[in-house]
Structures are given as structure tokens and as C-alpha cells.
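Sequence only, no structure available. Ideas?
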Amino acid sequence: EIGAVRAAAQKRTDADLKQLSNSLEQMKGAFGNEELGEKADFAFHLAIAKASQNPLLVKLMNNVSEMMIETMKETRRIWLYAEEKTAERIYKEHQQIYEAILSQHAEDAQHFMMSHLDNVEHVLMKYIPEEK
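Reply:
I predicted one. C-alpha cells follow.
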């Protein structure tokens, strides 16, 4: 997703921005409704793939969508259990990514996506025991 968000920042169209913005609004409106939040979260990441103008990436994301949604669901469940205000935090991270794409700042978009993915990984690693 790091490469995809860079390409999205460089190649996005007005229609892509609208789709990203709609996903953010759905996410914001879903505070307290995890199922809607998960769908909006996935829609945001799929919109980034579409904005990258890479049809192969979009096809790949559609093919693994069930797995991604399940992973996002589990991550959000763990994260929400671990910290209050997590839905708002996830929203703010997505908002930063969106603003970087909007302003076509590819490096910032990559930085914010990496930070978002690192936060998700950190939460998962904290609550999923390591295999030995």
C-alpha cells in the first residue's frame, strides 16, 4: 500500500478524491458501529488502489477483499478493546493520508500510510502471541 498511496497522490482524479472523501465521511459517521466502520475502512483502502490507476492492484484487492475485511475487523476489535477513542484515531490517520493525496504530496502520503500500517502492526503484535 505504500507504493499505491504514492501513485494515488500523483495520479488521482477528482472522482478518486470524491470516493476517498465519501469513505472518510462514512467512517466518521460509523463511530460506534463497527461493522459500518470496517466497511468504510476497506472502502478507503480500495479507493486508494483505484486512485493509483493500477488495475492489477484493484483486481488483487478485490480478490482478497474478504480476507482484508476480516483482518481489519479483527484489528479494529483488538484495537478498540485496547484503547478508547480508537475509531477516531483510525479516522484521523486516514484523514492525514487523504489530505496528502489531495495535495499531491506523495512523500507525505507514503509517510502517513507507513505510520498507519505500523500502528496497526504494533497493536496486532502486542495482542497476538508469537509462534515459537
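The CA atoms of residues 110 and 128 lie 26 Å apart.
Hope that gets you unstuck.
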